[in-house]
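Sequence in, structure out.
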Amino acid sequence: MTDWRTYQAPADVLAGRVILVTGAGQGLGAAAALAYAQHGATVILLGRNEKKLARTYDAIEAAGGPQPAAIPMDLAKISEAEIAQLGITIRKEFGRLDGILHAANGFTFLSPLTNQKLDEWVEMFKVNVAAPFAINRGLLPLLTQAPDAAIIHLGESHALNPAAYWGGYSVSKAGQKNLVEIAASEWDNQPNLRINLLVPGPIQSPFRLATHPAESAESLPRTEAIVPALLYWMSAASQGQSGRTLEFAAA
């Protein structure tokens, strides 16, 4: 059986596919977008920071990937109307959608529960769970028309192992597991569509730097180490596997 953590993807494994990547401006989202493009996909870059999206866009073009698209959008403020328009735009410009990687990450800061505020919790729940749910639902008609479609939610290890001071972030990320399992169960009559939760664990990223500033980056796997897993779960190699929670660092 193929080890998804060390999957050796064929160069054209995603050729002809259109993939939406949220949080594509930096970290794991940017690394995934570049890898998907290098393996043949047309990537739609979504994020709230236009300059960061532009850097990812330029990196894809410099690497010779298919011309991407960039859509500035803040998941903390996204509306039903914007999601509907996103679907219309993708259908009009690309005619298809074969996958979504939810890499956008809603996080404020570490603090005790007594210091956390309602609006902070609401924002983290919207970015980490509610907006991805609504995007999946809004783009489902396009995904179900694809011969092989995949949705990946990037999780966080503190959702599976809650600890002090992770508060609303941990609780909101814990909701991803239920969302993925419910969706997989409801879509079990659509074998062309799968959804899974991939938990990177400790890995070099801007988020890890923000939460563990004293940690030596050299002690962690490089961001690119997770690329084989991101390719495996987005490509046809993972057909028939849905509703799973996958811990990358548990190798």
